[in-house]
Amino acid sequence: MKMFTAILSVIAAIAVFVAGHLYWGYKTDPSRFKPASREVKAEKAKAEPAAGKKREANKTDKPASSLADYTKNWPKKARSDFKTALSKERAYKIAIVGSDAMGADTNGWGPQLKQALQDAYGSHVSVSLFAYHLNSDEFIREGKYKDVANFKPDLILFEPFILINNGAVAIDNQLEDIKTAAAAWGDAVLMIQPSYPLYKAANYPAQVKELASYAKKEGYTYLDHWKNWPDPDSDAFKSYVTFQNGEQTAPSNKGTKAWYDYLRKFFIAE
Fold first, then answer.
1. Quick count: other Cβ atoms within 10 Å of Cβ 32?
2. Between these two residues, 195 and 39, which has the higher pLDDT value?
3. Which end of the chain, N or C, is less surrounded by CB atoms within 10 Å?
């Protein structure tokens, strides 16, 4: 009997030992914790908003009926057309057309102005950029002006490639190219601006003056953003353009800001 009892005690002790070992192995197995860790991360991701998605105040909170206040600098016809578009609940179409100096791929003044217009006017405007590395003859010959016409814009801000034209297209031809494009653009309100100024340029400023005179003669609004830049003959101007191998190739960040600020104040009056 004693022998039987001793055997039972040994078996019971072994069973307790085995059970305890299995339980401890379960409690300390690292793989047991992986699902829980993934769940915690998933819940944390749900609870925390993605960076950069905080809501910013949007000027479109302004009632549609008072958005016309922003347009007080626009030509009379443009203001009238915009009010008509508002009354018909139709987006007013704005085309920004010109050389790649607008920085369509580099967050230049073109994309910045587009964003500013969308922030101010919201869904009441539709803005498209048409940027080309062409001179005005090529713009016409390749039919690129038709791209703009197909957009059916109400208003066109046009930089007619005058800097790319410099030394390549005679000023008389440049003005004829503007006439060709304007005829295809129909009743759209056309506003003309020059490209960026150059440091101590010789013939270019005279061509820009002819462009300004032509715009005035034809009744187009001329946006002289050069007023917002330092004197192109001054040393202070040098930091407003980018130099590569001694050539002025684009507006610098300072130049882009000067250009953009002028246009933003015109298109979105405060």
1. 11
2. 195
3. N
Beta strands 221-222; 155-158: pairing state: unpaired
The conformation of residue 125, written as its DSSP 8-state character, comes to E
Amino acid, single-letter form, for residue 138: E
Q: How far is CA 146 from CA 101, 102, 130, 143, 194, in A?
A: 20, 20, 11, 6, 21
Residue 199 has pLDDT above 70, yes or no: yes
Query: What does each C-alpha distance from 25 to 15, 102, 166, 195 come to in angstroms?
Result: 15, 67, 82, 76
Find out whether 165 and 133 touch, Cβ atoms under 8 Å. no
Helix ranges (H only) for 88-170 are: 109-121, 136-141, 144-151, 162-165
SS3 145: helix
CB 135 within 8 A of CB 97: no
CB atoms within 10 A of CB 31: 6
Pairwise CA distance, residues 68 & 79, whole Å? 7
Q: Which CATH number fits domain 63-267: 3.30.1780.10, 1.10.10.10, 3.40.50.1110, 2.40.40.20?
A: 3.40.50.1110
Q: What is the pTM of this model?
A: 0.78
Identify the burial level of 157 via C-beta atoms within 10 angstroms of its C-beta, where 0-12 means exposed, 13-18 middle and 19 or more buried: buried
- Indicate the DSSP class of residue 154: S
Most confident of 15-24, 45-54, 61-70, 117-126: 117-126
Helix (H) or strand (E) holding 103: none
